[in-house]
Design goal:
By secondary structure, this protein is α/β, with parallel strands linked by helices. It contains eleven helices and ten strands. It has helices spanning 19-28, 50-66, 77-87, 98-108, 120-125, 127-135, 149-154, 161-176, 193-200, 209-223, 244-255, and strands at 9-13, 34-38, 71-74, 94-95, 113-118, 140-145, 181-184, 205-208, 236-240, 263-264. The protein has a six-stranded parallel β-sheet with strand order 4-3-1-2-9-10, with helices on both faces. It has a four-stranded parallel β-sheet with strand order 6-5-7-8, with helices on both faces. Helix 4 packs across helix 10. The chain binds D-glutamic acid.
Length: 270
Amino acid sequence: MIPSQSRPIGVFDSGLGGLTVVKELNRVLPSEDIIYVGDTARVPYGSKSPQTIMRYSRQIAFFLLKKKVKAIVVACNTASALALKSLQSLRIPVMGVIDPGARAAVQTSNSLKIGVIGTTATMGSHAYRRAIQKNKSRAAVWETACPLFVPLVEEGWLHHAITRSVAAEYLRPLLKKKIDTLVLGCTHYPLLKKTIQNVVGPKINLIDSAQATAEYVSRTLLSAGLVNANRRRGKISLFVTDRPRSFSRLASQFLGGKARPAAELSLDNF
Ligand code: DGL
């Protein structure tokens, strides 16, 4: 039997976005093996119903359990908002990205005027507003859905003029509220960080929950005695539900060649 500490960490998202979390996990916990699932056949999650998001998330979690992961990181805000509670009934630690992101936002904001952008499902759940106000009840929070961002990222249009004008349109109402902090409440959005920062200007702090999440995962594994003590470099294995080649190309650009090519998986039997 494989000792718990040397088992991989399972990470999942609807597509490419969760790789922003993988990159940070690999930086903070370089010895850990990571198994990543991107549900590219069913992306985007953000426009789906809570029941569907829950069903998809459970299927992926069962696939990861079969791979004998020691913990699961839900590297998707949409699944964290709608499925985390249900996944936390599994027998291993399951962590999401919303609480770490919300904590980072209140630590960064001086005026406590905080904007949050994310998918339609995440914004509709108000999970961020609740998480931010749990940390600082007097924080003012404005949430805006940006449904066109995920397809633009999956298309690789990170710095395109169209992406910039879409961002300007979505962000105008938040800028009018004089926010000083903007939470990128979807793991796809850090890939648009430069474009978004250009639109909002240098005075607004962008919060990317990937870093805060990686640190939280590290603390959780440590306190559960699950950190891999082995000093070799961890492996990153990628699984996707469709188009593994195009995923591998974008993933290897983003992870600097650290992952092996993606394999295709079917979730039909989970
Ligand atoms: N990257 C995901 C998130 O953080 C999901 C985006 C989507 O599939 O709509 O919400």
